[in-house]
Amino acid sequence: MSPLDFVVLIGSMLAIAAYGVWRTRGPQNLNDYVKGDPKLGWLAIGISVMATQASAITFISTPGQGYQDGLGFVQNYFGMPVALILIAAVFLPMYRKLNVFTAYEFLGRRFDTKTRLLGAFLFLLQRGLAAGITIYAPAIILSTMLGWRLDVTIILSGSLVIIYTVMGGSEAVTLTQKYQLAVIFGGMVTAFIVLLANLPPHLSLTDALVVAGGFNRMRAVDFSLDLRQRYTLWSGLLGGFFLSLSYFGTDQSQVQRYLSGASLRESRFGLMFNAVLKIPMQFFILLLGVLVFVFYQFERPPIIFNHAAWASALAHGSPEKLRSLDLQYARVHQQKEELIRQWLAAKHRGDPKAEAEARMGAHAAFEHSESIRAEAKSSLLADGSHATTNDSDYVFITFVLDHLPHGVIGLLVAAFFAAALSSKAAELNALGATTTVDFYQHLLKREASDAHYVTASKWFTLFWGLVALAFALFASLVENLIQAVNIVGSVFYGVVLALFLVAFFVRRVGGTAIFCAALAAQTLVFVLYFSLNISYLWYNFIGCAACVLFSLLIQAALGPNSPPAEPQLVAQP
Amino acid sequence: MKLRDHTSDEEATRLPGLDTWRNVYWFVFASFILWIVLLVVLSAIFS
User: Fold this and answer.
1) What is the DSSP track for A353-370?
2) A89: distance to nearest CA of chain B, Å?
3) What is the pTM assigned to this prediction?
4) Which of B8, B25, B29 sits opposite A97 (nearest CB)?
5) What was the ipTM of the complex prediction?
6) What is the homologous superfamily of the domain A3-25+33-296+402-475 according to CATH?
7) What confidence tens digit (pLDDT) does each residue in A311-341 have?
8) Using CA atoms, how far apart are residues A468 and A572, in angstroms rounded to an integer?
9) I want to staple A83 with a disulfide (CB 3.0 to 4.6 A). Which of A202, A218, A245, A331 is the partner?
């Protein structure tokens, strides 16, 4: 990175954080600190919801997934629009009507204190874990690029977000997210344009997509019924629906974003903004990764994208073997590139036989080059390198560093950093709010001044920030980053969602039945997770269905439940 | 889905052509279906 890149990176990040703190200076009440500006319009809410979900992982790891597996990951978001419609129609009016600070307050009103605390506890557990994972992502980038120690990078990158979130609360989070998202989109669109300009001159966009399709990178929709397939239309629609319903409808980090709307109308449009734009946005990011894949068919890619791991293995592992693999990889890449050129030339002159031959040859060369890469990765792991099992997380950042002009590099790194801060801030804000409202205020100190609760909320936000930092410092990377976050979510989300679905729609189930059902269903999900080999998205559905079913059975065994204290808390068809 | 005792649910959308929330939701659902169809077509053309 050049001095210009550092100016863009540090300047934009500090300016946005400082602006957030400056605009929210002065005393705040608990409502402002937890819910934010009470006059927020739909666009600000929509941006805040989008920025909370789109972490640094989204912009680092998703292009890498596009590079490695193609467009298929977009199916993960197919359940989201319908889920957001249901939340806007049923969940949101109820939350606003009750004027709750947290989603779990609603559970307390509908069921009882123990169910409220269980919902809040499951949220703190899974979001606390995810917070550690998401703070890890920008630290990897910065440590790889700048050659900093990973622990120092985690502490530095986490400190800024902790400072402005603790000081400004929800209002600062929403304010900064607006500008952070502008930096993110500015960076990603610039990268897309520069990437298109860097493709070989003879290669049209259609040719690029043909090449991507030839290597199975353009299959966006997979109709397979195989449950072991991680991303299919069906797992996306069903599993993605439950994941989205749970995340957007019951996860405090999201609920807090849209509770702050000036009216029900503004909050609903904020959600609909995301329902319409999320799939195209994810498609665009994945397509970026697919085009990076095409770019590297004409430009020799590194055999291992994690430069630091490669350099370390060369210095301390088996350098002769690795250099030999690197040479083989370069040779096969050259053959593959030539075959791809022949394939496109045959296509342009209308020679299907030659086209098929060259395409098959290119495919075989690709398989060969992938086997060499796999061998190199195995060597790195065998040598005890700190390389992750998934090198695709480093693909996009390597492309950015090696092929984008100075200034744009700084902008892209700022975009990754902005994404990390925006989602992290919302998470910390929600963790602090839930601990304060659902535990501290409800169990420990019921009658205190507003200022006291704001101070408590600041301390709890700081506490969760430090927990996330500690988790990130000791966590080792498992699989692809974005998948790791989603897996953690899927293990817990189904049961949390069931608490809310039963609350909204099943009048006859009471607090004791749903509480026992949730414990049993969560245990079942843990057992299945460690014993089955199915797509993690299904656990959202399994956890939810099991909890609903168990609650009905347990309630039947317990006998009729007395009607809810507030009958209006149950929706009716 | 109608919520019991819930007057604010009737808040106007103030959008020409999409004057009820039901219409807004149908519009969002239609845009979602359109995206899936486009992605299926894209997959069919280039895979």
Assistant:
1) HHHHHHHHHHHHHHHHHH
2) 8
3) 0.87
4) B8
5) 0.85
6) Sodium/glucose cotransporter (1.20.1730.10)
7) 888 887 778 888 999 999 999 999 999 999 9
8) 40
9) A245
